[in-house]
Every structure is written in structure tokens, then in C-alpha cells.
Amino acid sequence: MTRLEHALSIADLRELARRRLPASVFEFIDGGAEDERTLADNRHALTRHRIVPRVLVDVAKPTLDTPVFDHTWAAPFVVSPMGSCVLGWPEADIAIARAAMAHGIAYTLSTMSTTSIERMANAVQGRLWFQLYVLKDARINDQLVARAQAAGYEALVVTVDLPVGGKRERDLRNGISIPLRFQGKHLWEGITHPAWAWQMLRAGLPEFENVRGLMGEEGAGLTIAARVGQSLNASYQWSDLARLRDQWKGKLLVKGVQHPADAARMADMGIDGVWVSNHGGRQLDGAIAAADSVPAIRAAIQGRATLIMDSGVRRGVDALTAKALGADAVGIGRAALLGACVGGEQGAHRAIEILIDELRRAMQLSGVPDFSTAQVELA
Ligand code: FNR
């Protein structure tokens, strides 16, 4: 058995990633903002629920098929957008996207990926979504939207929970910045993690390909969260979102929604998908856990928009719990990336396989033959 087959859970993959990566990279991926209360609460808000299983239901052939917009995914998972994944594995974006496509689920490319919109579209055929960070320069935003449209991306996801970067103290202490400013400790981390260091050296210095040359030198050397945050338009508001709705012809989702009144207003203005998320606890520490936001948001949008939830999904059963709370599908961030950090495409493949296998089993044990129509009772 290979190392990946030995990994039975996302927690196992996380442990393998922790051992393989330098601490500063692992903590960039794994960590959250400030005291990491919201990071911990995300997990707790999913795990504190208990399913009340039904019995004597034919669950011999469970189906995880999930209709989302005009398509049917093979499982209720979408890969959440993640920037700077390359720190964990060369070409991690493409590795994760290929794994997602192999499992028949969608993949969201981040504005801050190190793979351009076009390069990804050429490398991967399938359900590709593009996530937009709204930059200060409106012309760049327009260009990114036009490029995603031209490259055939199915949906646009605009992230609105990052008007400024969260205060991620681990990154501040570790000096994780873009462009990388090497410090003595990074050299030491490279020497003590030779497999990782050799891979990185061979792959060469990564770039934010979507915004190459557009972010300026201002703020170079800040942590990734700070650098991204200071490039973003903190004045972005409802009227701008209405303009984006007019501009983007495909499905439009808003990511980072936590208040039901915001969700209701989005549904009113024709937003197709409300993506409930607190950025995996990486932005506002003290924000409500994502799963706790779902029931009220479900009630507020009254079926007018698709509801996706991310932040804290680590087990297949979490998707069933999220469904019971009112989500149509769940996003996976770190789960997929930690897999990729252990074994590139195969590692990401293993992570998604684990989640799908766990979900299928959880459905069967709960008396749920069909995910999309599941009526699950929580205790
Ligand atoms: C993120 N996230 C994120 N979100 C986004 O809209 N654009 C981005 O570029 C990034 N970048 C990013 C990098 C890394 C390393 C992580 C871990 C996360 C947030 C991401 O989309 C998602 O909301 C969370 O990861 C969900 O929480 P879990 O699944 O990681 O618990």
C-alpha cells in the first residue's frame, strides 16, 4: 500500500502534510485568523449535530448525484477557491482541478492562483468556475471577468468577505510573504524538508499569473493575506454587485455570505448562488460558524438561489449534516489542498475519494438513498 492508501481520513492526510511541509507553509494553509476561534467553531458547528437515522429503506444503490444549476454533479462537493496553493505542491491548482474533474465535481479557480484562467481552461475539461477578488482597479476586474467568460468558465464566484486581509498571526510570525522574502529560517526549513525544497527549486518561482504585473510593488513583502487585502477594493458595495450581475452572462455566486438579510437581497437581485462561508476562519475571527448561518439563510432565500456552504468540511457526513441544515452542496478547501500537499493530483484525488466514500456510507447508514432529495432529521 502506498502512503496515500494508508490515509483513511482527511485528518490522516493533514498529518502527512504537516510532516512533509515546512511549518510556515503548513500553518499558512492550516491556520486561521487571530485566536482561531471561528476556525475551531466551524468544525464544532458541524460535529455537534447528530443524525437521527431512518431504517428499513432500500439503500443498496445510493445516489450522490447533485443537480446544481443546469448540470448534475456526481457528488455534492465543489472545490473552494484557494490562492497560493503552489507553496504546498508544484502546479497544485491543476492537480486539484484534475482530481475534481475525475470525480465529476466542480472546481473553482482563485484570482490569486498561480495558474492563469486560460492555462487552467486548457489543462482541464469540465466544470470550471472562476472566483473574482474585486481589485481596486475596475479595469482589471473587467478584464478578469471577460477572460473567464472567453475561456468558457461556467460560473463566476465573487468573494466579498475580504475587504481587507484577516490578521493571521502565524503568517506574520513565519514571514510568509509574496514575493517570497527569504529569511534565514526559511533556508533552515528548506534544509530540513529536502523533498519539498527540491520540488520547489525545480519548479521555479511561482507568480500570481492572473494579475501578473498588475498588483504593483506597493506592499511587496507583506504577508499573503495583507498583500491580497491591500490590493482589493474595500469600497465594493451593492451597486457594484448589481453592475457585475449585468456584466456576467453565466451563473453568478457570491461567496462569504453570513447574514440572512444579505442573502435575501442577493436572491432579490438575481444572484444564482449564495455561498455561505467565513473563509475557513481566515478572515473575521469571532464570526459566526458557517454551518450555524445556513438555516436562517435557507429560510431567507426561499429556494430562489442555490446554497453552497464551506468552512470546516472534513468528513463525508458533514455534507449530509449541511444538507439537513439547508445547504444544496458543500465547498471543500483545505481538505482538497492538504491531499495535494501529500501527493499532487493523486493526493487530491484521495482526499475527494475519502469524502465521497464517507458520504455514501453515511447516507446508507442514515437511510438516505438519494442525496438531492434527502430529508435528514438532526437531533
Ligand atoms: C482560501 N480561501 C480563499 N477564498 C477565496 O475566495 N479566494 C482565495 O483565493 C482563497 N484562498 C485561500 C487559500 C487557502 C490556503 C485557504 C485554506 C483558503 C478560502 C476558501 O475558499 C474556503 O472558503 C475555505 O478554505 C473553506 O474552509 P475549509 O474547507 O478550508 O475549512
Structure summary:
The protein is α/β, with parallel strands linked by helices and 379 residues long. The chain has helices at 3-6, 10-20, 23-30, 37-47, 92-102, 117-123, 138-150, 169-174, 184-192, 194-203, 224-231, 238-247, 260-268, 290-301, 316-325, 334-366, and strands spanning 51-52, 66-68, 71-73, 77-79, 106-110, 128-133, 155-159, 251-257, 273-276, 306-309, 329-332, 377-378. The protein is built from 16 helices and 12 strands.
List the helices and strands and how they pair.
Elements: H1 3-6, H2 10-20, H3 23-30, H4 37-47, E1 51-52, E2 66-68, E3 71-73, E4 77-79, H5 92-102, E5 106-110, H6 117-123, E6 128-133, H7 138-150, E7 155-159, H8 169-174, H9 184-192, H10 194-203, H11 224-231, H12 238-247, E8 251-257, H13 260-268, E9 273-276, H14 290-301, E10 306-309, H15 316-325, E11 329-332, H16 334-366, E12 377-378
Parallel strand pairs: 4-5, 4-11, 5-6, 6-7, 7-8, 8-9, 9-10, 10-11
Antiparallel strand pairs: 1-12, 2-3
The protein binds ligand FNR.
